[in-house]
Amino acid sequence: MNTDLTALKPALVWKHFAAMTQIPRPSFHEEKIRRYVLDVARSLGLECREDAAHNVYVRKPASKGMENRAGVILQAHLDMVPQKNNDKKFDFLKDPIRAYVDGDWVTADGTTLGADNGIGAAAILAVLEDDTLEHGPLEALFTATEETGMAGAFGLKKGLLKGDILLNLDSETEGELYVGCAGGLDANIRFRSVPEPTPARNYTAATVAVKGLKGGHSGIQIVCQRANANKLLFRLLRRWTAAHDLLLCSVDGGGLRNAIPREATAMVLVRSKEFEAFRKEVRAFEKLMRAEFAGVEEGISIKAEACERPAEMISREVQDKLIRAVAACPDGLQRMSPAMPGLVQTSTNLARVVSDGRSVQLQCLLRSSVNSEKEALGDAIAAVFELAGAKVELTGSYDGWNPDMDSPILKAMTVSYEALYGSRPAVMAIHAGLECGVIGGTYPKLDMISFGPTICYPHSPDERVEIASVGKFYEFLLHTLKHIPVR
To answer: What is the pLDDT of residues 268-283, one digit of tens each?
Structure first.
């Protein structure tokens, strides 16, 4: 296994990315990676600082003769999504990512790689370090906690950024220029539940586990219509409770709000005399789901295994309403864009369902490029769970980034790409949330575009980045900076 990323080209980009893989940086735990960026900037003698929202700002003066060019802001986020395979022992707060070269790709051993958005951040550091480059006035903005609500972008204050153009380096297909993105909304749901003692007799305890799903980014991969582990688990529970007794003791499904759930587990009690029938039903349901998701999910695993009986369970009143509400909750792709073929317009991801003994908490992340549709979907999800007796809060709403097809930087980069590679780049909008929408709300005069290398399966342990695409992405970035027009 080749783990030496520093031998790859472009050398400066891979040097910084290799260093970043050794620094734990899940969302809300970005202190060490901020220190790394600040240390690099200070070692280069560049003006730098950290703001109150924990964004890191660096300024690099123009190279000689380029002082009159329009100012460019290079922007990427520092946090990464911490996802791992169930059988992988790994602590994202302590352990370095074990990245390695796999043919034409770089990937990680059983965890997310952090190429999203580590490659973008590494490219910015490479630009800051290389004194041979030709460029106008540069600013670098490394934002905080993008993956869990864009906290850094929301906390960005007016007056910090001086540039005219913002290049967001957080897209994931080389050869595509992104000029728009979806807005988002969080649905936070809570059932209060006073725990009840489990019956002492006549019931057998079982752990029901849904595993083996692909998961992925809830904006990018939602169009693939992959299975959601939370939905499969509760669909199974609803299927059984329609005609049989079942007691729900605990549940733990999904993880981060912007990752499609790959795994979900529940501890249940079923009548002892029906236990074998229940296991047979689980096997039949697994077979049914494999057929239903054929060609989309190849590894669906749904198992029920006997376990030690827990002392307490979720109250009977709450568990019945919970099972029905989750079964009814909208999830996945809701509508495709009629204006841009192939673009998802509206979606929702039932990202998390977890009990803690006193409550059951759920979280959905809604996305849409149409604000009214996003709000209506939020109201629909709230209605489902409020009817079931849960408390629902709709928070963190942000607008999308509306495309400007007359953007000067779009025209300039299209010409630049064609000059380099002999073909025109694709001009796209993305269903995922990009920080451009939030930053543009604070700095509405910025001319913005987003691009990046090819990264597959972000937000999952299958994440990987194409080596050759990193080279093309960085070459394109440097060519763009060299040909920024006069202010």
So the answer is: 999 999 999 999 999 9
Name the active-site residue from 30, 79, 147, 463. Answer: 79
Tell me phi and psi for residue 398, to 5 degrees. -140, 150
298: CB partners within 8 A, 6+ apart: none
Query: From the CB of residue 293, how many other CB atoms can be counted at a distance below 10 Å?
Result: 18
Catalytic residue among 116, 146, 170, 172: 146
- What beta strand segments (E) does 176-287 contain? 176-181, 183-192, 196-197, 203-211, 246-254, 264-271
What length is written for the chain? 487
Do 247 and 316 touch, CB atoms closer than 8 A? yes
pLDDT tens-digit profile of 143-183?
Answer: 999 998 899 999 999 999 999 999 999 999 999 999 989 99
For 231-242, write each residue's pLDDT tens digit: 999 999 999 999
Rounded CA-CA distance 160/194 in Å is: 49
Q: How far is Cα 33 from Cα 22, in angstroms, rounded to an integer?
A: 10
Taking the model in full, what pTM does it have?
0.76
Q: Are 369 and 337 in contact (CB under 8 A)?
A: yes
pLDDT-based confidence at 387, cuts 50/70/90?
Answer: very high
Please, are residues 455 and 429 in contact by the beta-carbon 8 Å criterion?
A: no
Catalytic status, residue 79: yes
